[in-house]
UniProtKB/TrEMBL annotation:
The chain crosses the membrane at residues 26-43, 64-85, 91-111. It is found in: Cell membrane. It comes from the Bacteria. This is F0F1 ATP synthase subunit I. Keywords: Cell membrane, Membrane, Transmembrane, Transmembrane helix. It is a multi-pass membrane protein. Pfam families: ATP-synt_I. Coiled coil: none annotated. Its main location: membrane.
């Protein structure tokens, strides 16, 4: 399972636990997390399409395309949330966004360390 799959699983469980308590917080949590996961998954897909020295130009180009697409998707998803979703718990939305970004960094560090140990 990928890092993004794990993040989606955590989001669905957290949102499901929150739903009986506060519906607005539950969907705000899910949306905030998705605003982090979806653009990051797009970026990862773009960047890792090519590898190796023979594809250096394509790797650089896909990095820029991925980063600009990630930025535009993040802005668009936040804009969509604020414009079309009423009511919205903005604090929960931003908190979930930040927590999933933090989870992404922690999971990448964990899997990188695990992969280094396995290769030694």
């Amino acid at each position: 399972m990928t890092i993004y799959g794990l993040q989606l699983g955590v989001l669905v469980v957290a949102s499901g636990i929150t739903f009986p308590i506060d519906r607005v917080a539950a969907y705000s949590l899910l949306m905030g997390g998705l605003i982090s996961v979806v653009p990051n998954a797009y970026f990862a897909r773009q960047v890792f399409r090519f590898s190796g020295a023979a594809y250096a130009r394509e790797v650089a180009r896909s990095f820029y395309v991925g980063e600009s697409g990630k930025f535009i998707a993040t802005l668009g998803l936040f804009g969509f949330s604020f414009a079309l979703v009423k009511p919205l718990n903005v604090f929960v939305l931003f908190s979930a966004y930040l927590m999933v970004m933090l989870m992404n960094a922690v999971m990448l560090a964990y899997f990188s360390r695990r992969q280094r140990k396995a290769s030694n």
